[in-house]
Design goal:
Length: 487
């Protein structure tokens, strides 16, 4: 018979007093030893003929096991002073990187061609070799100039000068912001945000151009000048400087789950919620939600549903903590790596399980805490998904497994401008990788975005490849014979 989380807590309180009394009476007559330092808990005693679990009631052993697992995790998580500088209250600062003695270049992998993934941590911890880094304390130190071509307002009224880099406490702060287009001839880097119209001037040979895009390919321009960019900054993990909507990082890669501290299902009577205003998304998310609602309660707030709630209202978002068990974190497009605040803020930011549609399953797995979401592509149909949601709804223990990631890490500040400044001081020759020969092919090439499900897309792709492999090979001689026989 399943023991619910609520019943478990009641049992804990009832047995706590008994446990203390038991220890006081029998501590000198048992061979019980404190728990050993492992996640599973080792209650055995090498000096005893019987394991300690035979000397204490089973319910007490289970209670202590859960408590000690959580305590173990907290004990072994890095202390604040041992966490890196980009985490909340983290104090560990990076030092100059290791240099390959044979080449004189850095060993760190910073650019897309050097390593898979977003290279975020490498960039956050990168400080150029001492010989490349000028004296950051001197007021006479030359600064790398970064021109925001679209002006300060496009960047939240970012102020010109070096102040931003000092305020962020960047490991490398010898950079300065400019918002004056007249500075374009002596800028080290020019950033174009959201839309590109080429400047009319003679571009210096060593000047870098970067295209920054927050939206996905389905909502951004097609570039007529396809080969003018050196760097990119987007949510995509293969961008030069990845600029995700949010970024999860564990305190310790070896501790990805901890026992939950409360019952996240308690007092929640409603099933699925969704806040949405765009009813014409190209990935058919509305149709999927409507199909799902035939099998389980789905409350749709906004223009596309019957319920009303002011957009971005805290009162509405609070419903996810108090009333609902699941939230549809559906993106407006199915594009690889495209995961927005719908997931990070509305979903993970509340005590609710996000059901996701948008990026591929592997993209979410790479970006999200372990077992923190449910992807629609794991199910053949909305009815199958609903069946699984009902299973979680009826079992608090299974439901709470989706919250074991809490307290194991945090959404970090990605320090976008700090990383940019550090990379501007890099001198490693990137060769042909130093620019995009066709940004359209990179940004919107085949398989980047799809209209249907990723499950169906990959199935069709596999079928197409299988047909290609089994296709009879036609020789050059046969082709010539075919062409000569044509009328």
């Amino acid at each position: 018979m399943r023991v619910s989380f609520k019943r478990f807590l009641s049992l804990a309180g009832a047995t706590a007093g008994f446990f203390v009394l038991l220890l006081n009476i029998h501590i000198r007559h048992t061979s019980y030893l404190p728990i050993s330092d492992n996640l599973q808990g080792d209650y055995g005693d090498s000096n005893s003929s019987q394991p300690a679990s035979h000397q204490l009631p089973l319910d007490i052993i289970n209670l202590r096991n859960l408590s000690e697992q959580y305590t173990y995790g907290l004990k072994n998580l890095p202390k604040l002073e041992d966490r890196p500088w980009y985490m909340r209250k983290g104090k560990v600062r990076p030092v100059s990187c290791v240099v390959d003695p044979s080449t004189g270049w850095r060993d760190a992998s910073l650019f897309p061609e050097e390593a898979e993934g977003d290279r975020m941590l490498n960039q956050l911890l990168y400080v150029p070799p001492a010989k490349l880094l000028p004296n950051q304390e001197s007021p006479d130190t030359p600064l790398k100039k970064i021109l925001l071509w679209n002006g300060a307002s496009a960047w939240g009224n970012t102020k010109p000068g070096r102040g931003l880099f000092m305020k962020l406490k960047c490991p490398v702060s010898t950079c300065a912001i400019s918002t004056k287009r007249n500075d374009i001839k002596n800028a080290d880097l020019v950033i174009f945000k959201d839309r590109f119209v080429p400047p009319r001037y003679d571009r210096p040979a060593n000047q870098l151009w970067m295209m920054y895009m927050l939206e996905c390919p389905m909502h951004t321009q097609f570039f007529k000048q396809k080969d003018v960019f050196n760097w990119t900054a987007t949510y995509r993990s293969d961008s030069t400087l990845v600029a995700p909507y949010s970024r999860w990082e564990y305190y310790d890669e070896n501790i990805k789950v901890l026992p939950v501290k409360k019952n996240f299902a308690e007092k929640k009577k409603k099933k699925v919620a969704w806040f949405v205003s765009n009813c014409n998304a190209k990935n058919n998310r509305l149709e999927y939600a409507q199909a799902l609602s035939k099998f389980i309660q789905v409350d749709i707030f906004g223009k596309c549903g019957t319920l009303k709630c002011p957009r971005n209202s805290q009162e509405c978002l609070d419903l996810l903590d108090s009333d609902y068990k699941f939230y549809l974190a559906f993106e407006n497009s199915n594009c690889k790596d495209y995961i927005t605040e719908k997931f990070f803020v509305n979903g993970l930011g509340h005590d609710v399980i996000p059901i996701v549609m948008g990026a591929r399953l592997e993209d979410y797995e790479r970006s999200a805490p372990k077992k923190s979401f449910i992807h629609v592509d794991n199910f053949n149909s909305p009815s199958q998904l609903a069946k699984y949601l009902k299973k979680l709804d009826e079992n608090d223990d299974l439901y709470n497994e989706y919250f074991q990631w809490k307290d194991t890490g945090e959404m970090i500040d990605t320090k976008f401008f700090c990383r940019m400044c550090s990379l501007l001081h890099d001198n490693k020759d990137r060769g042909l990788s130093g620019h995009y020969s066709d940004i359209n092919e990179w940004w919107r090439g085949k398989g980047t975005c799809i209209k249907g499900s990723w499950r169906a897309y990959h199935k069709a792709l596999a079928h197409e490849r299988a047909k290609e492999r089994n296709k009879p090979t036609v020789t050059k001689k046969e082709k010539n014979m075919e062409s000569s026989s044509e009328p």
